[in-house]
Amino acid sequence: MGFHVPVMAVEVVAGLVGDPQGIYVDATAGGGGHSRAILEELGPRGRLVAIDRDPEAVAQVRRELEDERVVVVCGRFGELVQILVRQGMSEVDGVLFDLGVSSHQIDQASRGFSYQQDGPLDMRMEPGVGMSAAELIAQSGPEELARLLAEYGEERQARRIARAICQAPSMHTTAELRRAVESVRSGHLPKTLARVFQALRIAVNGELDQLKRGLAAGIALLRPGGRLGVIAYHSLEDRLVKQTFAPLVSACTCPPEVVLCVCGGKARFSKVATQTKRATTAEVDLNRRARSASLRLYEKRGD
Ligand SMILES: C[S@@+](CC[C@H](N)C(=O)[O-])C[C@H]1O[C@@H](n2cnc3c(N)ncnc32)[C@H](O)[C@@H]1O
Fold first, then answer.
1. Distance of CA 205 from the midpoint of ligand 1 (Å)
2. pTM of structure
3. Could you tell which of 1, 26, 102 is best to mutate to test the pocket of ligand 1, judged by most ligand atoms within 8 Å of the CB?
4. How far is ligand 1, taken at its centre, from the CA of residue 76, in Å?
5. Which of 289, 270, 259, 231 minimizes the C-alpha distance to 114?
6. Which residue among 150, 205, 224, 259 sits deepest, i.e. has the most Cβ atoms within 10 Å of its Cβ?
7. Structurally, what CATH architecture does the domain formed by 9-98+207-300 represent?
């Protein structure tokens, strides 16, 4: 089985790489697919910083991309500014966030991300760091768990499912979590399971907090003319991206009662396309992961 097939790689590269001699950041390097595609566009003076918080992904990318133009860093994109400062970089030409987990992480039962295979209820992108999903559940009461399922999984049966999870005799494996969810029998089971596993994964890895910090860092680090791209796989992430950029892309910062605009268009970003990009049906036929992906691209304006 391959490590990971990059989603919308053609669209990402076309949208992100403006200057082949520039500095680009792949903030979620995974199996290195997007990194490789970006690297193929770069000239001899171009640079790529490939980051992942999962040491296994980092090892894979180091193996895949031996190239003097590439630096591979194990770290969280929430600390993007610090990571780049350590590389002597204070401005970049493009940043990509391809959110969530890779196929490799999901396919390995031992990582505990999948409801389709039995494994330890772990879900940590950084193995051994912080609390596992089982530990998180053990220390949350049904109220807190219901809040997580509702907030991060947008699950309507959050209370009933949380109660079933907390009442289960043992909660150490993905199969035990699956059985607890199944016992509630609500709605379309695979979708409910996906929402519950998503919610726990987001909580375990602090994903939305990372995304907020990562976007803020990317916004600060981009040079005028530089571009930031985000591939999101569910509405929580996508909404956060949209809301973060909304005040930055508005054409005018003057209050609505000002009839004659005098700000001269102080918007700091423009959308690269009015429509969010979706994978083509041909791509979705080859890679089912691509079906829920949406790519947003923003360009920083000149001063
Ligand atoms: C969808 S995969 C990326 C796949 C990659 N674009 C490729 O072409 O192979 C997401 C990756 O982002 C990593 N990741 C998620 N959150 C992160 C964070 N806050 N900081 C760094 N890496 C993160 C995960 O470990 C995973 O390897």
1. 12
2. 0.94
3. 102
4. 9
5. 289
6. 205
7. 3-Layer(aba) Sandwich (3.40)
Our mutation pick for probing the ligand 1 site, out of 49, 81, 122, 125, counting the most ligand atoms within 8 A of Cβ, is 125
What pLDDT, in 10s, does the model give residues 17-63? Answer: 999 999 999 999 999 999 999 999 999 999 999 999 999 999 999 99
Atom 9 in ligand 1: residue holding the nearest Cα:
31
Give the H or E element holding residue 145. Answer: helix 142-153
pLDDT tens profile 157-190? 999 999 999 999 999 999 999 999 999 977 789 9
pLDDT, tens digit, for every residue of 202-220?
999 999 999 999 999 999 9
pLDDT in tens, 281-299: 999 999 999 999 999 999 9
| Candidate from 5, 52, 97, 205 with most ligand 1 atoms within 8 A of CB, to mutate | 52
Question: 121-204 has which CATH code?
Answer: 1.10.150.170
- Ligand 1 atom with the smallest distance to the CA of 4 is 9
Quote the distance between the C-alpha of residue 38 and its chain's center: 18
Name the pLDDT band for 81 (thresholds 50, 70, 90).
very high
- Going by alpha carbons, the residue nearest to atom 4 of ligand 1 is 30
Distance 3 CA to ligand 1 centre (A): 12
Give the rounded percent of residues in the chain with a pLDDT score beyond 90.
Answer: 86
Domain locations in the chain? 9-98+207-300, 121-204
Query: How many CA within 13 A on the CB side of residue 142?
Result: 12
> Taking a C-beta distance cutoff of 8 angstroms, is the pair 96, 28 a contact?
yes
Spatial distance between the Cα atoms of 189 and 138, rounded to a whole number of angstroms? 24
